[in-house]
Amino acid sequence: MQKITSYRDLQVWQESRTLASKIYLVTARFPTSEQFGITNQMRRAVVSIPSNIAEGFGRISAKEKAQFYAIARGSLAELETQAYIATDVGYMTESELEDIMQLASLTHRLLQGLIKANKERL
Questions:
Q1: Domain for residue 11, yes or no?
Q2: Structurally, how many domains does the chain consist of?
Q3: Domain-located, residue 13
């Protein structure tokens, strides 16, 4: 097992980056009228996930870490909701939604593991 010395070593951070890339590719095809609407909202939410994981990892106290990991989890839930809405209005296909939800589910499970491990430090 690899020793974790950086947030870049965390599988959850790696998977959340993959999710972010997928969202950027999918939203690039959204109508330009949504540039400042759901496109921007989804991109902000997805970027928040690996960003808050990284920031939490960089914090010293378990309490501070927990705060940033919780924000990442909230941003993930926000993104999932936005993906459903984007599909509902025809901006994404069901297949794209399924791919995103699979990545989101994996990210959520890994994030829950990170949160649990951190909680044991509290």
A1: yes
A2: 1
A3: yes
d(CA 41, CA 49): 13
Cα 91 from Cα 71, distance rounded (Å): 26
- CATH code for the domain in which residue 109 is found: 1.20.1440.60
List the structure tokens of 96.
């794209």
pTM comes to 0.95
Residue 1 has pLDDT above 80, yes or no: no
The tokens describing 108, both together, are 């959520």
For range 61-78, the mean pLDDT: 97
Establish if 2 belongs to a structural domain. no
59: exposed, middle or buried (Cβ count in 10 Å: 0-12, 13-18, 19+)? middle
107 burial via Cβ count (<10 Å: 0-12, 13-18, 19+): buried
Please check whether residue 1 lies inside any domain of the structure.
no
